[in-house]
Amino acid sequence: MKIEHLEIEVLNFLFIGRDLTIFALIYYFIEMETVSRTKIKELLKMQPGQDVLAKGWVRTKRGNKQVKFIALNDGSTINNIQVVAEAEHFSEDLLKKITTGASLAVRGKLVESIGSGQHVELKAEAIEVYGECDPMRYPLQKKDTSLEYLRTVAHMRLRTNTFGAILRIRNAMAFAIHSFFQSKGFVYLHTPLITESDAEGAGDMFQVTTLDLTKVPMHNGKVDFSKDFFGKKTSLTVSGQLEGELGATAVGEIYTFGPTFRAENSNTPRHLAEFWMIEPEMAFYDMYETMDLEEEFVKYLVQYALDHCMEDIQFLNDKYDDTLIERLKSVLGIEFVRLTYTEGIKILEESGQQFEYPVKWGVDLQSEHERYLVEKHFKKPVILTDYPKEIKAFYMKQNEDGKTVRGTDVLFPKIGEIIGGSERESSLEKLEKRIDELGMSRKNLEWYIDTRRFGTVPHSGFGLGFERLLLFVTGMSNIRDVIPFPRTPRNADF
Question: Are the C-beta atoms of residues 227 and 217 closer than 8 Å to each other?
């Protein structure tokens, strides 16, 4: 630390004959707290000459015997502030404690930086080490640590520049989602995480139980769920849509935003067992109004990212995907292509392209098919409609042809499907018939069917996978890298 000569004289006068060290320390701690902490994001915007207090973690330390240069970051920005610590003012023992990963409080003066990249740096007058970091054990020592390695230390990877940028973008996108729907008068609805219904009809759900798995109660050869907490078989939700429809048919327009769960044994770069979904449901909307809203929504989010996260996006563009910014801008200012499933199949069949999964009418399109339409054929986002009813969920409104339903999937470059939506079946008769055709339990869905019995209306909705959106906005290629703590088959660490 540095204490000015005049200050020392004052201390000597007040404490003649006493141990100056004690009072110097007291002075130091008092002085550290007389200046309020300023986040590094704000420090980098300030003018030289101001006394400031910065706190953060050490990214790097370099220098020589005379001076040390410390890159300090507090997570508020992708950028570091350079701390200049002249060795004559600090003990050797203190400087040794300042290693990559250590946490510091630094008081000093902002001065004009002679280096490139920032116009100010912090000339240290006092340094406190909050937490030391053993350089031999710290897992983030290497400059170019791979994303694959970082997944094994997911509890620490958030401190890297990459994941700091992703977290800030994720935060901004979450805010933008609420901003968009609130500006349109939608009601934010909290739908249950525990449910007995499978909205998708897939059956791949995580069971929720309080039963003792070593002594499972049985009745007639089956598990007796009457002894369970809820008195019936329950699972973690795969979607809040069905409950969302209840809200829409009460207050007009709602949206949900929360975690959903799929027990699919899928180890692809596009799937997670736990992910977040945005699901708006709108009374009195038809398929065409829904497509308009889907397009407006994703354009709003992309524009918000460019307006509020440009530093982080630029970093990811430069480090991982040099086409990221260009691709984000490309979806703005254009109209998305609107195409029926039948027309899309025809284009794919006539493309001459060799696909891993063969294409014919009636198949569920794979990512390679969706990306061909978006990236090679149209070179812009596509909204695909009117899918065969056999490959879509029971709640989608049937067209008059009896073969297709009013689905509305939004396809994006590099991602494929980013939104899945539809006009919902409003006819009681058709809905019940479809439930029976699929062998689903009408009894378990009586509460849902009631929305068609009592004041049914045309209504629509869609679901946007939050992590799919973040893949597009960040340019990351693996969905495990856009969520802080990924949950995948055989992986629930941290």
Answer: yes
